[in-house]
């Protein structure tokens, strides 16, 4: 009995091309996190642009792994976060919840891809909706962790005050970054075939 090559060789979870682009997008997230303007609470960075772009270009699975690689590199102490910070202390500091929230954004995007769509317009609408929901969850998680850490320092802050300080100044910029990321990814998507 003749067995074809595809029956003998199990498919690897990632192709070499997928691994390469996943690593490149993790590097892009790192570079974009270094491009920051420090403020009193949460820095203005291009991290969210890079996360949105990675997900839009690579898809949910590969984009999520790009975000995960970025978080793991930071967790082990490499200075990959804004202001060249790294380590568990940065992830569980005042603004660390917003960094960890990127993983929520990625997971929402990956789950949304399970919803079948019939054409390009519907796919873009689904993906943008997933990014918006993911961004809202990132904001919520980051704000709740901000409030918790703030409280551990013997201070208190209301949810509305935390939102006003940590979210409201950034919403328009993040929506602009989302639009730019989706637009660029759609332009490049046809040139990058991962499979």
Q: Can you put this structure into words, describing what you see?
A:
- This protein is an all-alpha fold and 195 residues long.
- The protein has one domain: Arp2/3 complex 21 kDa subunit ARPC3 (Orthogonal Bundle), CATH 1.10.1760.20.
- It has nine helices and two strands.
- It has helices at residues 5-8, 16-34, 47-58, 60-75, 88-91, 96-112, 120-152, 159-166, 171-189; strands spanning 36-37, 44-45.
- Strands 1-2 form a two-stranded antiparallel sheet.
- A hairpin with a 6-residue loop joins β1 and β2.
- α4 (60-75) packs antiparallel against α6.
- The longest helix is centred in the last third of the chain and has 33 residues, at 120-152.
- It is globular.
Please outline the helices and strands.
Elements (H helix, E strand, L loop, with lengths): L4 H4 L7 H19 L1 E2 L6 E2 L1 H12 L1 H16 L12 H4 L4 H17 L7 H33 L6 H8 L4 H19 L6
Antiparallel strand pairs: 1-2
H-E order: HHEEHHHHHHH
Structural class: mainly alpha
- The CATH topology is what? Arp2/3 complex 21 kDa subunit ARPC3
First-last Cα distance: 30 Å
| Strand element count | 2
What is the mean predicted local confidence, pLDDT?
A: 90
Cross-sheet strand order for the largest sheet: 1-2
The number of distinct helices, counting runs of at least 4 residues, comes to 9
Q: Could you say what the CATH architecture is?
A: Orthogonal Bundle
List keywords for this structure.
2 strands; 9 helices; Arp2/3 complex 21 kDa subunit ARPC3; mainly alpha; 68% helix; 195 residues
In short:
With 195 residues, the protein is mainly alpha-helical. The chain has one domain (14-189): Arp2/3 complex 21 kDa subunit ARPC3 (Orthogonal Bundle), CATH 1.10.1760.20. It has helices spanning 5-8, 16-34, 47-58, 60-75, 88-91, 96-112, 120-152, 159-166, 171-189, and strands spanning 36-37, 44-45.
